[in-house]
């Protein structure tokens, strides 16, 4: 069972997160302040951590920094009400692996935790495979079975990102940050949907088994395992 | 008598006392030097005289002594010729002073003159010699001249220094009182400002002293703060007003769901509506925070050379599918590659916002065009479309937070897009130009990176004569709110952009309404 340590001082928020993660078969340990959280992290070695930034006793980023100084490389998702670019950058620089601004959708938090736990290893593969899909990173070509798929550069990048994380929920925010390198919320909120629609149109031809799925209100999944 | 305890007065007193001490010290030094000089001169004189008289025949010595004393109109000379037994032969000294060395060295001794003022037995520089025939010759010279001189100088000094000292003290007192008054007045006005009278200002006066200059700077700062506080108050109202709508929607949906929903599907539908309302509220808050973050970001840590042409291509790449979905042709025309000094992400955000607006408000079948034109000094990014455009009455209003034209009430958005663009443009020291309707056209006029790197540049076409303007100072000036500057004033501080006005890049100025943001 995957063990997650949550360091969050707000009891209601903590309860909601614990309940949601427990439903998804995670074993969650909760610490209400930074000092206790740091002790738990050092002694119980969780698989991932969710750390609120503003904590009583010890600031969340100080906790993360202390762990990194102890050479503990546990993936950390930083939660914070401070959403300015500078704050995000600081959170990541001090050892956080991902940063989520409050208020957040619970599904976003779960998707990011899963992404942290199943981080694709930066292997030297030159061809990615997910079900019938093949992506040649050298030739910059995509195939589905025998059919060649003609992709624009942005679509190629999007598909590569999804194939490296196949069978994993990818939220719109994650796609914006990782594929489009957006550091702000775009004015047009259906930007991702439009691009994804075009990609899906090319990947899932009429009669093909659908690979790219829209998860209502959450994001998208590329199902490699049918 | 508070001024007596004031620093200004105490300093003036200290300076006056120091000056007086210095003058007295100088006088003491001059007196000592003068005294030494006169004594040395007197010693040389009597030594020469005694040598001369000692060389005279015995029968002429008494006459010589008498002659010398006769010629002494100031009565400063003493002389005495004594026999070997000590009997006075000539001169005005009663006897040889006791303990007096007759070796020809000059000594200060107390003489017994024949005629002297009551009780006066002066100390005189005296030289004595026993002559070859056993007689004793004693010559002396009174050196009280120096004391007389010092007395005269001392009187002059007293007459001069004392009034000067008093004058210094009076000047100190006057300055102290004056400064005290000004500080008191400033204190009172600052207290009024603290109490909430934001229109109160510090007294500047007509003088051009540092105090007046400081008051002018502080008043400028207060002007800026008053504007910002008023704007903030307005924004507070806007936020309250604009958040009410989505929150009301969410509340109504939840209320109706709680009362009427009978199935899980109905409840989910209600929840979705409520979440949408809350999401819109959050979008407003996020956009406002983003706007504040940009407006307050005075640091240019993220600044570097940014290729504008790459940004335009990337924005086009992002929005091309969306435009295509709406049946709009989106194209990009790049004159040549150009770099500007700025924050890549922010410039991307600004241009993306302009394109987003253009695509959003252009009807199906229309066109949206991105353009980049540049010369060595300036770059012009243009976003034009075949939509309704922004009419003249709304050109200033569209830059205000939360402004939503009646024509676009039903389109998605929170009315912060152009405010955000304006803030980013202002941060970079660029200009935002809104073209006239029909058809939308918004332009960003920027300095090239090379132009920004030039720390100083001559103004060739502004004002009278040539001046030099610091580019960074220009950016700071723009940052500090040139929004309220007139076109003329604006030209006075932005030479590179003035050059643009006459550059071939721009369409005739009459076609455009320019807004400094």
Automatic annotation (TrEMBL), chain A:
Tree of life domain: Bacteria
Keyword Transcription among record annotations: yes
One annotated GO molecular function: transcription cis-regulatory region binding
Pfam families: Response_reg, Trans_reg_C
Modified residues annotated as 4-aspartylphosphate in this record: 52
Keyword DNA-binding in annotation: yes
Ranges annotated as DNA-binding: 125-224
The protein, known as: Two-component system OmpR family response regulator
Organism: Bradyrhizobium daqingense
């Amino acid at each position: 069972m995957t063990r997650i340590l949550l360091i969050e001082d707000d009891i209601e928020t903590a309860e909601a997160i614990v309940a949601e993660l427990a439903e998804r078969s995670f074993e969650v340990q909760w610490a209400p302040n930074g000092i206790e959280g740091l002790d738990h992290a050092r002694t119980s070695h969780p698989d991932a951590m969710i750390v609120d930034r503003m904590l009583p006793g010890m600031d969340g980023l100080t906790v993360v920094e202390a762990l990194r100084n102890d050479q503990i490389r546990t993936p950390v998702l930083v939660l914070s009400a401070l959403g300015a670019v500078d704050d995000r950058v600081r959170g990541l620089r001090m050892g956080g692996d991902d940063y989520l601004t409050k208020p957040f959708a619970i599904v976003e938090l779960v998707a990011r935790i899963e992404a942290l736990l199943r981080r694709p290893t930066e292997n030297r593969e030159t061809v990615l495979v997910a079900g019938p899909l093949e992506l040649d990173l050298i030739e910059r070509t995509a195939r589905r079975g025998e059919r060649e798929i003609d992709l624009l550069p942005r679509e190629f990048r999007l598909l590569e990102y999804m194939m490296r994380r196949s069978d994993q929920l990818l939220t719109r925010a994650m796609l914006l940050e990782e594929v489009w390198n957006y550091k702000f919320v775009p004015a047009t909120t259906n930007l991702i949907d439009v691009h994804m629609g075009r990609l899906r149109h090319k990947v899932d031809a009429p009669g093909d088994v659908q690979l790219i799925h829209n998860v209502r209100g959450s994001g998208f999944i590329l199902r490699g395992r049918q | 008598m508070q001024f007596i305890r004031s620093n200004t007065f105490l300093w003036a007193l200290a300076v006056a006392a120091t000056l007086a001490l210095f003058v007295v010290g100088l006088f003491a030094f001059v007196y000592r030097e003068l005294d030494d000089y006169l004594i040395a001169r007197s010693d040389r004189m009597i030594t020469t005289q005694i040598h001369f008289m000692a060389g005279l025949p015995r029968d002429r010595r008494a006459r010589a002594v008498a002659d010398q004393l006769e010629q002494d109109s100031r009565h400063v000379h003493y002389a005495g010729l004594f026999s070997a037994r000590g009997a006075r032969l000539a001169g005005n000294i009663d006897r040889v002073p006791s303990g007096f060395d007759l070796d020809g060295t000059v000594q200060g001794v107390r003489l017994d003159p024949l005629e002297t003022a009551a009780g006066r037995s002066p100390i005189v520089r005296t030289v004595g010699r026993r002559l070859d025939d056993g007689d004793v010759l004693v010559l002396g010279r009174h050196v009280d001249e120096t004391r007389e001189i010092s007395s005269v100088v001392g009187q002059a000094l007293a007459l001069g220094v004392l009034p000067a000292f008093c004058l210094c003290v009076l000047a100190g007192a006057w300055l102290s009182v004056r400064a005290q008054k000004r500080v008191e007045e400033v204190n009172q006005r600052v207290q009024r400002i603290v109490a909430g009278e934001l229109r109160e200002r510090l007294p500047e006066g007509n003088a051009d002293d540092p105090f007046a200059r400081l008051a002018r700077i502080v008043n400028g700062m207060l002007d800026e703060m008053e504007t910002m506080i008023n704007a903030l108050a307005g924004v507070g109202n806007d936020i309250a007003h604009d958040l009410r709508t989505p929150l009301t929607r969410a509340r109504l949906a939840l209320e109706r769901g709680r009362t009427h929903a009978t199935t899980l599907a109905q409840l989910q539908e209600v929840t979705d509506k409520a979440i949408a309302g809350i999401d819109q509220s959050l979008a407003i808050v996020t956009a406002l925070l983003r706007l504040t973050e940009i407006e307050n970001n005075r640091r240019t840590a993220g600044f570097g050379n940014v290729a504008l042409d790459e940004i335009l291509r990337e924005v086009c790449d992002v929005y091309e599918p969306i435009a295509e979905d709406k049946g709009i042709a989106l194209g990009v025309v790049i004159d040549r590659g150009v770099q500007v000094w700025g924050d890549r992400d922010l410039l991307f955000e600004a241009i993306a916002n302009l394109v987003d607006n253009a695509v959003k408000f252009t009807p199906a079948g229309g066109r949206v065009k991105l353009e980049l034109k540049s010369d060595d000094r300036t770059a012009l990014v243009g976003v034009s479309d075949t939509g309704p455009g922004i009419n003249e009455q709304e050109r200033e209003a569209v830059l205000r937070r939360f402004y939503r034209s009646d024509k676009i009430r039903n389109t998605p958005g929170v009315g912060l897009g152009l405010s955000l663009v304006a803030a980013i443009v202002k941060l970079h020291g660029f200009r935002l130009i809104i073209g006239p309707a029909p058809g939308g056209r918004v332009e960003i006029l920027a300095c090239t990176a090379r132009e920004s790197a030039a720390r100083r540049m001559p103004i060739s076409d502004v004002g009278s004569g040539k001046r030099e303007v610091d580019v960074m100072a220009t950016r700071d000036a723009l940052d500090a709110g040139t929004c309220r500057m007139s076109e003329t004033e604006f030209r006075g501080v932005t030479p590179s952009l003035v050059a643009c006005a006459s550059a071939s890049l721009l369409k005739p100025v009459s076609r455009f309404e320019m807004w400094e943001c």
